[in-house]
Amino acid sequence: MFKEADTPDVFPSKVLVCASEKLLNSANKKDIWALSGDGWKSVLADHRKEVISRFIGKLNTPRQSQVDELFLQLIGLKSISSSWHWKGKTKKKAVESLSNLITLRGSIAHRVKTSKSVTKSEVERNIQICMRLSVLSSNACAIYLQKSTGKYPWNRFTYKATG
What we know:
With 163 residues, this protein is mainly α. 57% of the residues lie in helices and 0% in strands. The protein has 5 helices and no strands. The two termini are 22 Å apart.
């Protein structure tokens, strides 16, 4: 999206507003001139770096709200988690499965053990959840970017019956 853009118009208003806040709130009112010419590209690139820094550090616990906010702030995609469903699994159950995985990961990482053993089938089930959520998120993002720019940024993926 960023590389393809000739003007900032391809970016949603939410992203443009978030990216410009630093300039608007600056004590030095001349900072707004950073937007002149192709300066908007630098402003958006700086915004991207800040958003990635703010959210990616927390993604050792990628809860639904954090993932949704990351995509909203970065490219303007509202609720990427709304795509997290497939045959036999509602969005609510998918989010619950992700939360359970995050809780399990936290109990292993912070306590060095869990209250119960982790079985091979649990590991395999969690791999399935991660793969499906990844594919669904990738496809939702690609469709959103295609609608914004008119070009597909990457091919659509499938994983088992997901995609």
